[in-house]
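Quick question about two entries, pasted in order.
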Amino acid sequence: MGTEKKEIERLNHTIEGLKEELEILQEAVGILMGAVMEDGEEGDEMDIMDRKLLAFGPRMSM
């Protein structure tokens, strides 16, 4: 029974971590969508998107 409780706690911790990652990704998507809508030139949009993706990249690889 103790093993099951530890596994449940581990899974709950994993779920909480995934929720935090989801919030970060949702914020990144909002930023990217805003950047794309603000710029009219396609090249500028890619530069902004590349910078935002790089900013969020390291956190995603945890």
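Here is the second entry:
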Amino acid sequence: MYISNPDRNHLNVSLIDAVLDVWGKTGEQHLIPIAGRSMFPLIRAGDQVLVTHGSAGIRRGDVVVFRYNGTLFAHRVLSIYEGNNGTTFITKGDNTPQCDPPFGINEFIGCVISIKRGNRKMPIDTAAWRILGWLIAVSSLALVKMHLLIRNRDQKFSEHQPNQFTLFMKRGLRFFPIIVRRVAFVPFCWWKDEKRFVFSEKTMNRTTQNNETGR
């Protein structure tokens, strides 16, 4: 299933050839700037992602970088298939309604292990983040399958009035992503407020010092 939303997280095209050439020779980790909102709120426009080269150890729920039509994208892995033609990956942006086109090892670039926003850095290759990523991937995959099921059902019974079950499922599909995002993205809110927390802590320390000086 191809993505219809053009606002996907992508890397600057001018960096692609240079990055691939360096990775092909050294296999080192590199920070790469991101644009777009397809992985919001985890990855935002202006963030940088630290990418490690290669596909070893990739699991469902990991955020990976791949190449499609001359552009690099950073999206979450929903499924991994092994076939006669090798490994095939199915990915999707957390903030997009549809999956990306399937791609193989030749298009695979690397795995995102951390996100840099300003002076802050958040690793996402920990056990906790892998579990969270897996939950997001499974819920996203279930949502896509439910959407296809309802769409096929509507096409099959298009001449009839939609029944209560179909209406219930459609309404559920509207609220399901909101519920998942609110539950799964709690750590993102903490990361977003980390700067405020640090500021408050400094302010508290400064206030305490002033009070002690005034005694």
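Reply: Strands lie at 30-33, 48-53, 63-68, 71-83, 86-92, 103-104, 108-117, 120-123. The longest helix spans residues 127-156. Hope that helps.
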